[in-house]
Predict the structure.
Amino acid sequence: MRRDPTRPARPRASRAIAVGAVIATVAVLGGCSGPPPDQNAELSGCLVGDRGTLALGVTNSAGEPLEITGVELAEAEGVAVVDRFIAIDPEARATPVLFESEGRGGFDGVDLADASIEPGAAAFVGIEVERTGAAEGRVNGVVITTDERETIAPVRLVLLDDCG
């Protein structure tokens, strides 16, 4: 699965890109690469509005395809999951997490069962949430599941009327 060359690249201005740290997810998923655990850091984002997407960068360093079988919220308050997806993208190799107002369409994502991460490839594994009321929505961690294990990524997202 490759990005359609006739489609323009995703705009960088609409997303908050967290750089400088790599989440634990890539380190402990079977066959995935990542830094030593002491270099991991919690990554946080704030989005204005009722919907938000957390897209975690995962790289497969194993010799066989990596299938992501599930993506769930570790802890959440005031949000409900509306979508889960995977998007093969080489940019995911150097991007630990993206916080985006767009959902799956902003990543050219597909259902989890429709793609696997080939050896040496990278992908964004995404989960889109929506606020369930007028109060802020909070996500504290995302659980990514493969056939072999579950891993909690220490990412946080807050959905507010104003991130000021």
Summary: The beta strands are 15-18, 43-48, 51-59, 68-73, 76-77, 79-88, 97-100, 122-131, 137-146, 150-160.
